[in-house]
Amino acid sequence: MRGAKLTNLVGLVCGAGALALSFIAGFRVVRAAEAALATTEVSLGKIDPGIISSTLTVSRDGKRLAYEAYSGARQWVVTDGVAGKEYDGIGNGTLVFSADSKRVAYAALHGDKLLVVMDGAEGKEYDAISARTPVFSPDSAHIAFGARKGGKWLIVVDGVEGEGCEAIAAGTPVFSPDSKRVAYGAQHDGKWSIVVDGAEGKKYDAILAGTPVFSPDGKRVAYGAHLGNK
Length: 230
Prior knowledge:
This protein is α+β, with helices and mostly antiparallel strands. It has three domains: 1-40; 43-125; 127-230, TolB, C-terminal domain (Neuraminidase, 6 Propeller), CATH 2.120.10. Helices cover 16% and strands 38% of the residues. It has one helix spanning 2-38, and strands at 51-58, 65-71, 74-79, 82-83, 89-90, 96-97, 104-110, 113-118, 121-122, 128-129, 135-136, 143-149, 152-157, 160-161, 167-168, 174-175, 182-188, 191-196, 199-200, 206-207, 213-214, 221-222, 225-226. The strands form six sheets. Strands 5, 6, 7, 8 and 9 form a five-stranded antiparallel sheet that branches.
């Protein structure tokens, strides 16, 4: 009787062990399948040997790739494996895809002038292009950037130049969520103001970084500002 109990006990332990091993094996099969799916790779084009790896930019839909490349003193942008026109330089941090992933733009140096290139088409030349521009509107239909011309800075929206000013606030221009409005910070006579749709607001000593911002419906604009010691 005692021997029978021992046999049954061993059988139970062995059975439990087999069940546990079966469960673990099944668990590993599922994880292996998940790993295979997670590491699926899709080619986004050949890499130019002159690639500047820090400029790799992937479109929002994950289907397009662009980056800067160089050879000697010449630079160009490669989009979807196709090299664009060579320039004397490409603006650092200016390479950007539109929200719908269909358009790509960047600032390029041509001699001592800079211009914005969008989908391979060159825009007007300027003395400088402001940092972190060009920018696309949320609906991808419009493009804006800051530029210096004849000692004055101005905002260019879809090729149309705005009024000149002494300086443009960093991080601007910005589009409203509905893409219908544009706002930016501008300096005149040492004072700063927010310009919305071409209309200049009240003047302040400084405009806070990260502003202005539009409300979700695009109807209102908010920003921080300094006036005197306040």
